[in-house]
Every structure is written in C-alpha cells, then in structure tokens.
Design goal:
The complex is a heterodimer of chains A (171) and B (203).
Chain A lengths: L4 E3 L5 E4 L4 E7 L3 E7 L4 E7 L17 H14 L7 E7 L24 H15 L4 E6 L5 E6 L4 E5 L5 E3 L1
Chain B lengths: L8 H26 L4 E2 L3 E6 L13 E11 L3 E8 H11 L10 H26 L3 E3 L3 E6 H12 L5 E11 L4 E9 L1 H10 L5
Antiparallel strand pairs in B: 1-7, 2-7, 3-4, 3-5, 3-6, 4-8, 7-8
The chains are: A alpha+beta (171), B alpha+beta (203).
Chain lengths: 171, 203
C-alpha cells in the first residue's frame, strides 16, 4: 500500500490500517485526537469542534463532537481488528484564538479569551471520555493561544505538531 | 429552520446584495481612513460545509490576521476581517505611520483591531438600515495565526447544531498599497429566516 497523506477536516474523522499520514490542518480551539493501536498498526484521527453531543438537540455529523467522534473511531478501529486495550491516544489543539490586544488574563495568556473557553472545554471533554473508555492518553500539546497542524503517521504512531509561532514538536 | 436545499437563487441574490451594500459602506470607511482607492470584488454568498470554509482564504495553514466580532441584537452572527500577513503589516503601517517593524506590536495590533471594528460597524450599519434590525457588534478580538485555526473558533459559535454555515464574503483591495483582505459575514442560521423576511425574500 502506497503511503499517502489524508487531510481530516473540521468535524471529520478518518480511520485506517494503511500506512497513511493523517493530518488536521490549522487546529484552533478544535482538538485533534489520534487513536493508535501499535500492535496492529491501526489508527484514527478526529478533528472535533465541540465537547459534548448530548448538550445539543440537532446533532449533525458525529465527527463534530468529542464524545461521538471518539466512540465512532473506536468502533471502526475494532471493526478493522483492533482491541480497545491496545489503543493509546495523543491529542493536540484546544487553544484560545482571540484576545483583546494588550490585555492579559490571570494566567498570563494574552486575554481575556473571547468565546466560551471552548478550547479548554474540548480538551477536558476529550480527556474525560478517554478515561471513561480506558484509553490511556500518552501525549498532548494543548492550550495556549496559537493554532496547530497535527500529523499522525499510522505506520509507527508518530505524531508531529507544528505551529507558526512555536515551531514543531514531536509527541 | 433554513436548510441547504431551501435557499433559492433569489434568496442567495438577496444575500449577495447584503454583502454588496455592507462591504460598499465598509470600503468607503476604509478608503477615508487610509486615503486610498479601495476596490471590491463581487460578493459571494453560499452555504458551505464546515470543512470548506477555510478554503475561502487559501487553505487552513495560510498565516493570516483575523479580527473577529460577534453580533448580537435582533439577529445574531459573526463578522470577520481577514488579512494575509503582508497585507496586515502594510495596513498597520498606514494606520500608524510611526511604527514600521516587521512584527506587529501591540499598538499596531490595536490599530488593526480598531480598523476591523470600524469596517464591521459600517457594514452592519448598512445591513441594519436595509433590514430595520438592531445589530450590535461586540468588542473585536484579535488573532494572528493559521487561517484554519482562526476560522474553526468562529465555526464553533455558529454551527453547534448545523453542518453548514452561510458565508457572505467580499474581497477588497487597496491597489496602491498591495493590501488585500476579506470581509466575511456569518449570519447564524437561526437568524436567517428573519433576515430573509426583512429582505422580502422569505421562502
């Protein structure tokens, strides 16, 4: 199978057993969730916007919410032969993108953050759901006030996070 | 609630006209501020899937400056002024001629934020006059980052229960100074029926 890059857009997720690189471009308050089964080299990446599908009556696509995206990915990975006990997670994103210039909030992030602290809530929700499902979170690069691109190589589980102002780091 | 199929060509035309008049007003304000001629593109009005929105400005990783205002009042939505990095620097230089570093300092950021506020204000004034609706913009927020990261934040506010967003977008161009930017109005879909009604094109 030829290696290729698959872009995972806002509110989408993608699961594969091929040696692809899955990418979330430009994560802001959204969170990228990589689930990986290293034994079988099966992986999935989601680009979620919101913490909880239960808070909203008209739901739309499952990839939009942390809870439904993680559950759907786990189900699809299991269909490909993966076991939940072999899965680990790495996450990135959940930033606060907009601030009032010059103002600082108590945590010394440029602030105050506009909006509903949605990035932070997304990260919290993702962690809670992973814990509920017994999937260990092995690495994260979350929070702050900057956007990130997250690349997940399914052949070896390597996750790279790059940003404009804070360089690139491996998870 | 309006869904994708229900927007007729006539309604899309009316929404384009909103973009036309709103951005026309904003362009007059911008032109007066920088004392330069400002050209406008033909506005686009379309319902886009969430995934497609950042393509409007050349892809999710494009470095941009975004000035964002939330609209409250009779109708709700969001307004965004997007500038590519070079354009933002050039515009900041025009707004505060003293400072001319490569990176935008706090003063320049405030100047851009204020510009966004004035442009959005003129745009919304025109829209309010057309529709008789009360539209109140919030204090603008500022971000300098990947386009995708800036837009995803706005999508959160407007797309909690929808997989599509309505985008009314105009490109403007300050020819002499190579400044190009986008003014984008994202009406909440929940307010769309009301706006269409006021424009005389309800379904």
């Amino acid at each position: 199978m030829e290696e290729k890059q698959v872009s995972v857009g806002v509110a989408e997720y993608h699961v594969t057993h091929n040696p692809h690189t899955l990418v979330c471009f430009g994560l802001g308050s959204c969170v990228g969730i990589a689930l990986y089964d290293g034994r079988r080299k099966i992986g999935g990446l989601a680009h979620v916007m919101l913490p909880d599908s239960k808070a909203i009556s008209r739901k739309g696509s499952p990839g939009k919410f942390a809870d439904t995206a993680i559950r759907s990915m786990v189900r699809e990975m299991e269909k490909l032969g993966s076991r939940r006990k072999d899965m680990v997670a790495k996450i990135a994103g959940g930033a606060c993108m907009f601030h009032i210039p010059g103002a600082r909030n108590p945590r010394n992030v440029p602030g105050p953050c506009l909006g509903m602290q949605i990035g932070e809530r997304n990260v919290e929700a993702v962690k809670r759901i992973l814990e509920e499902m017994g999937i260990p979170l092995v690495a994260e690069d979350t929070g702050g006030d900057y956007g990130r691109t997250m690349r997940f190589r399914v052949s070896d589980g390597k996750v790279t996070v790059s940003s404009i102002r804070h360089g690139t780091r491996e998870l | 609630m309006v869904t994708r199929k229900e927007l007729t060509p006539l309604q899309l035309d009316a929404l384009r006209e909103v973009g036309n008049i709103g951005s026309g007003n904003a362009a007059v304000a911008l032109s007066a501020m920088v004392d330069q001629k400002v050209l406008l593109s033909v506005p686009r009005a379309s319902l886009l899937p969430l995934v497609k929105v950042s393509e409007l400005v050349g892809g999710a990783e494009t470095p941009v400056v975004g000035i964002y205002l939330r609209i409250s009042g009779d109708a709700t939505g969001s307004m965004l002024l997007l500038l590519e990095e070079k354009s933002a620097q050039e515009l900041a230089r025009l707004m505060c001629p003293g400072a001319c570093g490569e990176d935008l300092d706090t003063v320049q950021q405030s100047a851009l934020q204020e510009t966004g506020s004035i442009l959005a204000g003129s745009y919304l004034n025109a829209l309010a006059q057309m529709t008789g609706l009360l539209l109140k913009p919030t204090v603008p927020g500022f971000a300098m980052d990947m386009a995708g990261a800036i837009i995803d934040f706005i999508l959160v506010e407007i797309s909690q229960s929808e997989d599509y967003v309505l985008v009314i977008e105009t490109e403007f161009d300050v020819m002499e100074r190579k400044i190009r930017g986008h003014l984008v109005l994202f009406p909440d879909l929940g307010s769309l029926d009301l706006i269409l009604g006021r424009l005389g094109v309800s379904g």
